[in-house]
């Protein structure tokens, strides 16, 4: 288990080609024993953005602070603090800081490419409210 | 894909036995096509808490606002805005609001019980910084 303030987690450059002014903190990852997915915090400088690319895994995201836009092959979508975002596998996408402050958002990814799911967690279907 | 402010997502009661003053918003779930995990926002009233229980899936969490404590079989851990939390599978745990305001935190769970992982996403190991 782990409880950590995000500022205690190293802020590292995003090395991917096409990224500008983008940094990342791996808040919870495989190194912590997390078996299925990784929780990361992105910090984008004003004007900064992630690469415009696609891959076969999804993103689930949460905007902590700042304002930006999600550019996809289905259009552009503005976002701000308190927004949740879902990006499908194989969708072209990039996150852009359109404000004057640092944009901070969480982005969760699976550890592996999607596999056929058999036994579903009954508490994950949006009907049963457990925790 | 989806971009939604959390206030636009229904706030539902947490029905699990042992929960007190706990509500939930399913921000991203299977109904949205998410293939692997669900992103939920919990809202706990002052004094409220989730059930003290255990299960064989993990939690990854992020504190949006408020203050609380995570009670586990390894002890109690205070948390506040900007903290990330990881709870291992099969660990007794509950989240408690210890402040005067509503406690809001994200909690991410897998759709299914852990399976043996074979092909790992190279961008999820905390070493390669992509997005």
What do these coordinates show?
The structure is a homodimer of 131-residue chains. Chain A is an all-beta fold and 131 residues long. Helix content of chain A is 0%, strand content 50%. Chain A has no helices and ten strands. In chain A, strands 2-3-4-10-5-8 form a six-stranded antiparallel β-sheet, with no helix packed on it. In chain A, strands 7-6-9 form a three-stranded antiparallel β-sheet, with no helix packed on it. In chain A, a hairpin with an 8-residue loop joins strand 3 and strand 4. About 5% of the residues of chain A have low confidence. At the A-B interface, strand 1, strand 2, strand 3, strand 4 and strand 5 of A face strand 1, strand 2, strand 3, strand 4 and strand 5 of B.
List the helices and strands and how they pair.
Two copies of one chain form a homodimer.
Chain A lengths: L1 E4 L6 E2 L6 E9 L8 E13 L9 E7 L1 E6 L2 E6 L2 E5 L5 E5 L5 E8 L21
Antiparallel strand pairs in A: 2-3, 3-4, 4-10, 5-8, 5-10, 6-7, 6-9
Which segments of chain A are poorly predicted (pLDDT under 50) over 5 or more consecutive residues? 113-119
What overall form of chain A do the CA principal axes indicate? Answer: globular
**CATH classification class of the domain at 21-110 in chain A:** Mainly Beta
Mean pLDDT of chain A: 90
Helical content band of chain A = under 10%
The CATH level-2 architecture of the domain at 21-110 in chain A is identified as Sandwich
Using only C-alpha atoms, the radius of gyration of chain A works out to 15 Å
Secondary structure class of chain A reads mainly beta
Q: What is the CATH topology assignment of the domain at 21-110 in chain A?
A: Jelly Rolls
Strand order of the largest sheet of chain A: 2-3-4-10-5-8
Sheet-strand content of chain A, in percent, reads: over 45%
Annotation, overall tally of beta strands of chain A: 10
Instruction: Give the oligomer, counting copies of the same chain as homo and different chains as hetero.
Output: homodimer
Question: Biggest interface and its residues per chain?
Answer: A-B, 80 and 80 residues
**Helix and strand run of chain A:** EEEEEEEEEE
